[in-house]
Amino acid sequence: MKQSLQLAPEPLAEEVCRAVDHAEVITNLFRDFSVALPRDTVVRRDEPLSNRTTLRVGGPADLWVEPSSENALSSILELCALRRVPWMVLGRGSNLLVRDGGFRGAVISLTSPQFSRLEFTGDRIEAGAGVRLKHLAVESRRQGLSGLEFLEGIPGSLGGALRMNAGAMGSWTFDVVERLRCMSPMGDILDLPVSEVEVVYRSCPILQTHLALGATLRGTVCTAEEVREKMDGFSRKRWDSQPNQPSAGCTFKNPSASLPAGRLIDELGLKGARVGAAMVSDIHANFFVNLGGATARDVLTLIDLVRTRAREARGLELETEVEIVGED
Ligand code: EPU
User: Fold this and answer.
1) How many A from CA of 221 to the centre of ligand 1?
2) Nearest residue (CA) to ligand 1, atom 9
3) Ligand 1 in reach of 47 Cβ (< 6 A)
4) Which of 22, 36, 107, 230 has the most CB atoms at less than 10 Å from its CB?
5) pLDDT digits (tens, 9 = 90+) for 20-44
């Protein structure tokens, strides 16, 4: 026993040291947060993330923070930088796969009222990153503003939709954005016209490093009834073509407009393929559903399996749309 301990390979010893160091860093950061942040900012340790994602898998976050203001958020980023602790923002967790070991660092949630502002002036909408897309779509309908109907069935927040330029029913989030407000990793605020923001299919690159605070959106004036009709049509289409079991939405980006990943996976005969309690949906093949009790490992293995089949059978490299974070 003693001998085997002495002979323990070096990397293992290093890993143990790193883990101990990390625990200490997190303890210190937790203390910094408690001292420096306003009392109404929520700070918790070891927060389970599985019930904060729509896929319902994954381990805990070392730290969970709900800043109560932009100043508090800026202090959080500053303290994380000082202690060299990684951070990420979690919206509604609808496009996220957290690995089973959880996230080593701070997870920031913009759910406080400060970040959920929603104001209508004429055809313009000022919306905070924390606003739910469904709420945004329904309020726009009430105001008789068209153009945001496609957001109704996306189970996310505006911040997440901006970061990934979420889309559905032929529209993208940035179709309705006029200005983007975001915070740099150093806590500085930028307010950019959309013409200065690079936007591509399923991504807004600046929001890979910066954090979305909100946006000015623009709709088209019409009647609430017209908006309702359009929204109902989208909703029916969604219910007919997408599963309602826990999932992270579409798993892969579409390789091209003419070849949706769902059709490709379907053609490969993979609907219903299972690893543990993770399954390729038999309703829409780009949705991987949690049948109950799936682990992140199950989902990741299923992702690998589908990727390998697409590569071998069709020479195509599928890229995940779902964001994968954390450690095994
Ligand atoms: N299809 C199949 N088999 C399937 C699934 C789809 O043959 O199992 C076919 C459909 O019949 C259709 C085509 O593939 O001809 C495209 O399917 P769909 O209309 O469902 O659109 P999609 O490209 O698969 C995109 C977005 C979805 C969004 C829908 C609805 C991506 C990766 N996905 O899906 O977004 O809800 O359009 O507009 O761009 C998400 O981002 O998480 C997401 C769900």
Assistant:
1) 29
2) 263
3) no
4) 107
5) 789 999 999 999 999 999 999 999 9
